[in-house]
Design goal:
With 370 residues, this protein is mainly β. The chain is built from one helix and 28 strands. The N and C termini lie far apart (118 Å).
């Protein structure tokens, strides 16, 4: 029994020593592999790019030719070339002439970026993004609002969205515990049907997309999709911003969030597919509210003003400013809440309709150029 025990012990000791040697060799191999794959100093990220002018955030006009003055900081790494990228344009520039002239005539308004990348031995070692702002190169045409006809309007309706189709006016209203979606015989003011939103929601803009009505809410980041005929709820949709106005060009939904930003959304899932910033020839146009797509332009109420603007959704440029002060009812001109809000268009008969929050009348109007 004693001899067997000694043999077993010897076997265990030998096995342990062999295993230890194997692990040691494996560790050396892994260590050597890590050394061989260690990146060279030439691929290390460094800070070498400097842009002397213009400064980040500066405002320019679409069409300006902007000289981008680039410089290189002192570094142990030799930079052999740079690449500059602007909207849709990419160019390689050599280190002996770092200035670049940016032609901007094809840009959209708002923020646009210049991206500069530095290379050493074919490896990108630094990048620099410069964001500039661009106002429109178009002076908007000025219009006034001419009254054509007056129709009754529910004075209690806090109008947030308005749309016309096939002789019927659809209206979405706001305020928590008061928000509704309704269908109206606008010529008589008679209510055809109405749906109340749950008390916690503040209703906002509405639009019709095919056989559906979409209604936004203000701060709940929730949209409701209804059957247009029955007002039966089909689904709810989510979006990351506030909801103000909404319209459609027949392909995308176009939404405002109370700022100068306009969002393009997929009609089925509400995924954002694009964005444009609205500017005129002086700067950004903020507080965009109720929207209506008419003949290639988006008409928008400017919140707490007596003005409607029309902008190109492709470029963000404001092309029309419409003064509606002559239409605002007496007693409503200085109120903060009961402001101009609501634009609808009858495409078949080329008729424009406007109203406001808690206004007693709906107006058919013409926009007359000054």
């Amino acid at each position: 029994m004693k001899i067997i025990s000694l043999a077993a012990s010897s076997f265990l000791i030998c096995s342990f020593l062999l295993l230890q040697a194997s692990c040691s060799n494996q560790g050396k191999k892994e260590s050597k592999l890590k050394e061989n794959t260690k990146p060279s100093n030439l691929t290390k990220r460094v800070s070498v790019i400097k842009i002397d002018s213009p400064k980040s955030g500066e405002m320019f006009t679409i069409g300006d030719e902007i000289e981008i003055k680039i410089a290189l900081k002192k570094s142990d790494i030799e930079i052999d070339s740079l690449t500059i990228e602007t909207e849709g344009v990419k160019k390689v520039i050599k280190t002996d002439n770092l200035n670049y002239n940016w032609e901007t005539k094809d840009l959209k308004t708002g923020s646009n970026q210049v991206k500069v990348f530095a290379y050493s031995n074919g490896n990108r070692v630094d990048s620099y993004y410069l964001k500039l702002r661009f106002k429109s190169d178009i002076i908007p045409d000025l219009y006034t609002c001419k009254l054509v006809k007056t129709y009754p309007h529910d004075k209690s309706a806090f109008t947030q969205g308005l749309i016309y189709e096939d002789g019927i006016m659809y209206e979405g209203t706001g305020q928590r515990k008061e928000s509704v979606l309704k269908k109206i015989d606008f010529e008589t003011g008679k209510l055809i049907s109405e749906l109340s939103l749950p008390a916690e929601y503040f209703g906002e803009g509405i639009t019709i997309f095919k056989d559906k009505i979409i209604q936004l809410t203000w701060t709940s980041q929730t949209g409701f999709v209804y059957d247009k005929k029955s007002f039966k709820l089909i689904t709810t949709l989510k979006y990351p911003t506030q909801g103000w106005g909404i319209t459609t060009d027949g392909k995308s939904l176009i939404m405002s969030d109370g700022s100068h930003n306009i969002h393009f959304l997929d009609p089925e899932y509400f995924n954002e597919t694009g964005k444009v910033e609205v500017y005129d020839n002086k700067g950004l146009v903020d507080s965009l509210n109720e929207l209506e797509y008419i003949n290639g332009l988006v008409y928008a109420n400017v919140f707490q003003t007596k003005e409607i603007i029309a902008f190109d959704p492709e470029t963000g440029k404001v092309v029309k400013r419409i003064d509606c002060s002559s239409i605002v009812p007496k007693g409503y001109k200085n109120e903060q809440n009961n402001v101009l809000n609501g634009i609808a268009y009858d495409k078949e008969n080329d008729r424009y309709f406007i109203t406001g929050k808690r206004w007693p009348e709906l107006y058919e109007v013409q926009f007359v150029k000054k």
